[in-house]
Task: inverse folding
């Protein structure tokens, strides 16, 4: 009879369940599931990207409610066009491209509305964007939180005054942290163009925020 | 240290990751070039500022609203008749464009055919004329050179029609006319129309002759039987052709 000298001698491995390898399902597989009518697969896709897409569109449009609406529209389009999706690109590139197109068309709509709306000059909120970037108050703020909040507000506002062709690459690069290659794919342009636009966007931004930088 | 080096270094700084260590030659350049070092500091500050923007989260009811939206779209799509759903798709638009093109092609082909048949018809009298038809006063412009002809306007019938003599044109009598079926149709597109001549003493006045009594036309058929057709008198009404001569219906049948 075998004597047990330590607890390790007890062989529980046969009785214990094997370690469950939780493998993350790829976006492509989820989209295929969506196409096959699996609602849970689509729900998983939504949960993966809803915050990223909402945040990205918000940075582009500077309007939270509008950004949520456009993010939903992005997912509706993904759902509708699931059959036409080509697996040659990453799904994240695909969904960001849809979101970018929606955000840019929203910005253009706003620009047109501003052209025809005289009352927009007097309005706050969305109408406030019609005004040119206003110089910040140079009085020092003592509270650090207030300073940070104010700085972020200024940065967001400065971004929202950038031309849309500079805004999208800058947000994708410096806020979303995408690589140049990814940005080029999302914007359907060359990497050189992306680099050049980001450089110009930073120069614009630096001019607008020279009191902060 | 030249401007080209500075440009290269700045491009590298711009494309590098935030906080990434640059290559040794670039670091050497930065140690020597104050402007490029300042550029690096500015860029790093700016990127930190932009990167400090906190990500925004989607609202809690995002999924629910999305599901509702998709369900609503599905319902709306299912409720719409197939033709409306189809019309909004790319194949639908393509089919509509094809239908429009087909209709346009049919209309164009029909018009082309009609033009061709008209051209063939207008060619016919030219051929007849060249075949030796008598050169009558077909053109009203030619009538100006013959001012001394009859007081009452004479009507030149189409060349194929039988020309009536004055006795036959007498309104009080019945006129036995032998009708040639082939001569009944006068197409003025293919033959010259009658010319109406004006007289000197009644310049500006056009006289048209019409019987005041019913005209009887006798027609003989193939069996030799005679049929009489009673034609009521024709009235053109009262018309004023110019301002100089007052015109009205008279017994002389001149207006």
Result:
């Amino acid at each position: 009879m075998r004597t047990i000298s330590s607890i390790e001698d007890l062989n529980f491995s046969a009785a214990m369940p094997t370690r469950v390898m939780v493998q993350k399902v790829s976006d492509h597989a989820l989209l295929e599931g969506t196409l096959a009518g699996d609602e849970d697969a689509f729900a998983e896709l939504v949960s993966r990207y809803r915050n990223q897409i909402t945040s990205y569109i918000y940075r582009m449009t500077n309007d939270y409610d509008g950004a949520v609406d456009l993010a939903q529209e992005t997912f509706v389009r993904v759902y509708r066009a699931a059959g036409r999706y080509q697996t040659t690109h990453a799904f994240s590139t695909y969904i960001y491209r849809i979101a970018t197109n929606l955000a840019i068309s929203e910005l253009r709509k706003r620009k047109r509305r501003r052209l025809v709306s005289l009352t927009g000059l007097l309005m706050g909120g969305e109408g406030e964007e019609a005004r040119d970037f206003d110089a910040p108050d140079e009085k020092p703020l003592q509270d650090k939180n207030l300073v940070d909040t104010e700085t972020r507000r200024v940065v967001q506002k400065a971004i929202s005054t950038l031309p849309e062709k500079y805004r999208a690459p800058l947000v994708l690069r410096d806020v979303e942290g995408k690589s140049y290659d990814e940005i080029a794919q999302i914007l359907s342009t060359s990497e050189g163009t992306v680099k050049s636009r980001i450089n110009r966007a930073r120069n614009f931004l630096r001019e607008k925020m020279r009191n902060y930088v | 240290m030249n401007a080209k080096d500075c440009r290269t270094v700045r491009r590298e700084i711009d494309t590098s990751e935030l906080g990434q260590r640059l290559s040794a030659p670039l670091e050497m350049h930065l140690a020597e070039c104050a402007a490029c070092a300042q550029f690096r500091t500015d860029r790093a500050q700016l990127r930190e500022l932009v990167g400090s923007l906190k990500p925004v989260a989607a609202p809690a009811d995002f999924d629910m609203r999305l599901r509702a939206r998709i369900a609503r779209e599905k319902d709306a799509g299912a409720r719409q008749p197939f033709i409306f759903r189809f019309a909004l798709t790319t194949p639908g638009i393509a089919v509509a464009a094809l239908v429009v093109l087909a209709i346009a092609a049919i209309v164009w082909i029909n018009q082309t055919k009609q033009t061709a048949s008209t051209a063939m018809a207008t060619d016919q009298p030219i051929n007849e004329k060249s075949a030796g038809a008598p050169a009558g006063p077909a053109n009203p412009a030619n009538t100006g050179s013959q001012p001394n002809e009859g007081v009452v306007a004479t009507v030149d019938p189409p060349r194929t029609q039988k020309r009536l003599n004055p006795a036959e044109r007498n309104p009080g009598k019945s006129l036995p006319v032998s009708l040639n079926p082939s001569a009944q149709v006068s197409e003025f597109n293919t033959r010259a129309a009658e010319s109406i001549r004006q007289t000197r003493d009644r310049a500006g006045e056009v006289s048209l002759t019409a019987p005041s009594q019913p005209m009887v036309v006798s027609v003989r058929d193939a069996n030799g039987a005679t049929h009489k057709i009673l034609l009521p008198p024709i009235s053109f009404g009262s018309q004023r052709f110019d301002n100089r001569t007052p015109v009205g219906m008279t017994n002389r049948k001149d207006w």
In short: Chain A has a mean pLDDT of 81. The first helix of chain A runs from residue 27 to 35.
